[in-house]
Structure prediction request, 718 residues.
Amino acid sequence: MDTKEILKKMTLDDKIYHLVQMTTMTYLKADGTDIVTGPNSTMKLDKEYIYDVGTLLNLVGAQTMIDAQTNFLNHSKKKIPPIFMQDVIHGHRTLYPVNLGIAASFDRQLAHDVAKMAAYEASLDGVSVAFAPMVDLVRDPRWGRVMESSGEDPYLNSEMAYATVKGFQGDMGPHNVAACVKHYAAYGAAEAGRDYNTVDMSERTLRQFYLPPYKGAVDAGVKMVMTAFNIVDGVPCSANKHLIKEILREEWGFNGVVISDYSAYEEMRDHGYCADRKECAYLAMDATSDIEMMSPCYANHLKELVSEGKITEEQIDKAVLRILDLKNDLGVLDNPYRSVNLEESKRVQVGPEHRAIARYAAEQSAVLLKNDGILPLSKDIKSVAVIGPNANTGAIHGNWPCGGKIEETITVLEGVKNIVGDRVSYAKGCNIEYDSTDESMIDEAVELASRVDAVILCLGEHQDYSGEGDSRTYIDIPDVQYKLLDKILEVNKNTAVALLAGRPLTISRLDEKAPAILDMWMPGTEGGNACANLIFGNAVPSGKITMTFPRVLGQVPIYYNAYMTGRPKLEEDDFNRVRFTSSYLDMANSPLYPFGYGLSYTDFEYSDFKLSADTMQRGDVLTASVKVKNTGKYKAKEVVQLYIRDLVGSVVRPVKELKGWEKIELDIGEEKEVKFEINEEMLKFWTKDMKFEAENGTFDVFIGKNSACHKFASFELK
Ligand code: GLC
Prediction:
């Protein structure tokens, strides 16, 4: 379709309303009486144009899309089909682990494949755009949306962003969807981990740490970008011209659609950045933001701004054309119903093939945090009890469940039953609520625990405790869960904890007490089967955390790629009091578990560390290599990690930075050599003059199984 020809036939009103996004629920009445919900009711849209908005937000199922699209087009004047956008965050109906889990798999192909699966399911329900990947870098586990993120490292987040966009978009075929990277930018840096709170950082920090993941999505050809609720350098992202026009569009060459977050334009009044909705409309359009999600600034004020000469119709034309071109890319202008297919969606969604993908993803994402040897349990065990507030609930499928249904989720109890049959028994033990003090169920659970060979104790968070608006000031497991654990350990030491939560928790006490801890994150629709497979050794844990676990909340923010400071505390003094160093009177500096940490049922021996040269001329490529041997009793995977430290820079540089990784599988006794290429590009950073380049000097090289590894060589860049 010739989108410019379509644009020519649109009036200014048509164009303005094409920039408005409404909820799908508005269009479910065939008689055209729209269901005006939520902010819709305050939007005071011109009824004449409510059936000519450009895009729709959130829907549930193929039939809903068919009904809404039919009703919309029956009442629309211009008959330009809207496209449907959905929060397909970690699956559409078959849910895979929350993204902090997928990142822990350190598996780019997996990130790609689960997004591809989600796109297939979403396209069958008529979805055109997924509001994903969320790639916000995070350093504060008080922020509930860390569960959607890939964690604290810019390189890993960029790689996962790239892979996920490619998975969603593929070749933009009928069973792909357009991806929408979010939340641009630095939403994860909300002060105190309090959602929507102030973000304030230097341009250098922004560019060095927080922008690369969005750039990774843009490099993958992402079709849309969603701006964030927060300010950056005092300006709300919704109308941040430096971020949107100067960096995203002019510097990175992105010419796709930019959409606001939910009612974020009009919230610029609350920020104290705009006096009224008219100014919101002016500043957002001036920043080249295209779609207004669920607020009426554009609809109610753009026409006036054009008549006053403050906004030109050409500016509006550019925004409309970007949306029409996206619709064209999706084939919607030729076929408004795109790939919706009720029968196929029933066959595919939560079908065996997709469940297998989700199960594999949950197995690869899980992180073994501790194991004193009780795991894996024997499949021939005579009796096992699954106990705890997360033992028998489908809510473990996670926050942002999209079309996922709790009743379709395999619980841990069901997963264990699928392996040991009627040798399993269950007790709840306590409630999941973070403020629950009800101890009335503990005795029954303890009595059961005293009669079985092993206990799988399912602790952690409710699905709604990590997500949007779910900031917390206390991020340990609740005392009642510790009471349950203590009493069970008194009668049965053969107890493994399955931790089901969306974020890093300050579980120092759990680490001291529990013989084994398997972090499943919020593992999705097949979480129970994956957990059971890992507990009983049908699968071997291989995940590595991508966000630091603090010992206590008082250490937050705590992350591995920090600066040395002028008074570093020596590692060997970590638990000693050393005044006048950058340290605490009452706590070590080190985290409970460092970035990149995760155990296996087997052991891996690293040897024969090599660096091909100790000097690098510009344009050279060095090779760092190591041999890794499986010295244990299980065939297993290991994530071999490469870190580099730039010792001296025109600005200070992190103590180490992840620059590569390889996930390898080794049979029992097998040894492999892993090689990494080190090139000049990897050494670049935002220098004192704000140029992105590498500076001559000495670099330390680290290879290891997590970020606490030590350097084995250095080289000189000349
Ligand atoms: C929410 C979220 C955003 C989501 C959007 C639409 O407020 O911040 O991630 O895509 O609204 O649901």
DSSP finds 21 helices and 26 strands in the chain. The radius of gyration is 26 Å.
